[in-house]
Amino acid sequence: GQLGYDLPSGSKSSWIPLPVDINGSGDPYDEGQLSNLAMGESFSGVVANNGTAEMNIYTWGNNSYGQLGNGTLIGHTKPTPILFESPSQNILTVETLDFNEFSSAMIFNDGDLNFLYTWGSNWYGGAGIGTESYNPKSPEQVGITELNVNAFSNNGRSMEIALTNPFGGADLLYGWGYNDVNQLGLNSKEI
Known about the structure:
The chain is an all-beta fold. The chain has no helices and eleven strands.
């Protein structure tokens, strides 16, 4: 299902490139502006702007950990919008979309600040939501809310992001998740 369209019965691959109908209009050439394409191990996604001020994120493929962000664990062979509500009344733009093995992340801008949201696999607390007791099936904000997120790196089990103070302060680097060989830079294996 990660190709975004149904294949002939019994087929698991396509030997030729075919257009994907992102918004379900029936016309794959009527998608508006597409940006921020991302691919995980067995799922894909893209940001689409269909002429409105707000961006839409569509995902498809495997969803065994909630990595599609649609609120379920059900996979889709065709693009489906993620479940996401901006915490701000300002215009939402997606700055970065990143997928990994079974997890997803995005940076979005509300007109003033960039915020980091994650969903899907939360092995070793890699989603950064303050617990590892569940896998978020729709985007949840990472537990650092007072700073402006500039960049992040997502390897599926640990994550590091570069942050900066929105008031012009010094850049800070935060790390969380799996830390078996001190890859988070926290000077300790214990978190």
